[in-house]
């Protein structure tokens, strides 16, 4: 039997049993793609990561190689696995910055100590703005009415590694009422440049929270989607929902009973949105080993 060291953390929260769960295997060396996918299925969380240790120079010069899996597929990038894995690695080396070498590229995560714990902030890839979606088409695919969407803000695809369509709805009541067929949604995605839809509202009920959000995918409802939050940060700056470099909070996961808080900001140079950053806290929940027959 090979025993794989494992840490689980709750990400984008400073309280255990909130936020988004993540399983981190701190030594995935030698595991096949098929085995990693099977382990992720076994963990049955939204994502599982595998750290592939390298010698010190390689880690310093090229970052730490990490692979990210959902229960169904490998992802080139995802927000909460990036923050959570970097947080686990930071506790082992106490460095101010941890760089992850992901399939989508190298992502730096900078850590600072605060009164609420260790705060990590990742810098995502420069945002790419894609198609603007017709409200009528999105409404039809996701069980809403065209008038449920904000008329002055677009539904637009943005990617900082994974493409999300940021979809602003009029109210918290609309956001809470979301209920749709995944099969019908998947049919929409097949014809779209977006991999997932990120529903947001400015009607948060809290002046300290700029957006409330929901993201539903094939593994159920995601309590926190850091990659989508980065896309939303870029979208907010482009359309004046947030000022350049203003750090604002996106709350997600309330409907899944796992409240998450993501601290986001993006810069702007001329008409170009840049320097997308997403931050938050993490809490260790479990550590142990997974026994794997060799």
Structure notes:
With about 290 residues, the protein is α+β, with helices and mostly antiparallel strands. It is built from seven helices and 18 strands. It has an 18-stranded mixed sheet that branches. The longest helix is centred in the N-terminal third of the chain and has 15 residues. The mean pLDDT is about 95.
List the helices and strands and how they pair.
Layout lengths: L1 E10 L8 E6 L7 H11 L3 E6 L3 H7 L1 E6 L4 E2 L3 H15 L3 E6 L2 E10 L2 E7 L4 E6 L1 H7 L13 E5 L3 E6 L3 H5 L5 H9 L5 E6 L9 E7 L2 E3 L3 H13 L9 E5 L7 E10 L2 E9 L1 E11 L2
Parallel strand pairs: 2-3, 4-6, 11-12, 13-15
Antiparallel strand pairs: 1-2, 1-18, 3-4, 4-5, 6-7, 7-8, 8-17, 9-10, 10-11, 12-13, 13-14, 15-16, 16-17
Helix pairs in contact: 3-7
Q: What composes the largest sheet?
A: 18 strands, mixed
H-E string: EEHEHEEHEEEEHEEHHEEEHEEEE
Write down the overall mean pLDDT. Answer: 95
CATH fold-level assignment of the largest domain: Diaminopimelate Epimerase, Chain A, domain 1
Instruction: Determine the strand fraction and express it as a percent band.
Output: 35-45%
Termini Cα gap = 6 Å
Please give the share of residues in helix: 10-25%
**Would you count the extended β strands for me?**
18
So, CATH architecture of the largest domain?
Roll
CATH superfamily heading of the largest domain: Diaminopimelate Epimerase, Chain A, domain 1
CATH class of the largest domain: Alpha Beta
**Coarse shape:** globular
SS field, number of helical segments: 7
User: How would you name the oligomeric state of the polypeptide chains in this document?
Assistant: single chain
Structural class: alpha+beta
Number of domains: 2
């Amino acid at each position: 039997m090979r025993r794989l060291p494992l840490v689980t953390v709750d990400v984008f929260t400073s309280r255990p049993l909130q936020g988004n769960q993540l399983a981190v295997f701190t030594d995935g060396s030698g595991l096949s793609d098929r085995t990693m996918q099977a382990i992720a299925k076994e963990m049955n969380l939204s994502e599982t990561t595998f750290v592939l240790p390298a010698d010190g120079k390689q880690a310093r010069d090229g970052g730490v190689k990490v692979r990210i899996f959902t229960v169904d597929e490998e992802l080139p990038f995802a927000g909460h696995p990036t923050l959570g894995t970097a947080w686990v690695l930071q506790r082992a080396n106490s460095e101010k910055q941890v760089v992850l070498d992901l399939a989508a590229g190298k992502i730096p995560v900078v850590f600072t100590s605060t009164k609420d714990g260790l705060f990590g902030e990742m810098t995502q890839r420069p945002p790419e703005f894609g198609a603007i979606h017709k409200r009528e088409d999105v409404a039809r695919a996701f069980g809403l009415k065209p008038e449920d969407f904000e008329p002055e803000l677009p539904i637009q695809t943005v990617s900082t590694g994974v493409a999300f369509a940021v979809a602003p709805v009029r109210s918290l009541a609309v956001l809470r009422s979301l209920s749709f067929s995944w099969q019908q949604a998947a049919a929409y995605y097949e014809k779209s440049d977006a991999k997932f839809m990120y529903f947001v509202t400015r009607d948060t009920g809290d002046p300290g929270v700029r957006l409330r959000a929901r993201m539903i995918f094939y593994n159920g409802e995601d309590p926190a989607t850091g990659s989508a939050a980065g896309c939303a940060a870029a979208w907010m700056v482009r359309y004046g929902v947030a000022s350049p470099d203003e750090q604002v909070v996106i709350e997600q996961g309330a409907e899944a009973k796992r409240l998450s808080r993501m601290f986001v900001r993006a810069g702007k140079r001329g008409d170009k949105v840049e320097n997308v950053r997403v931050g938050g806290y993490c809490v260790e929940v479990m550590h142990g080993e997974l026994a794997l027959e060799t």
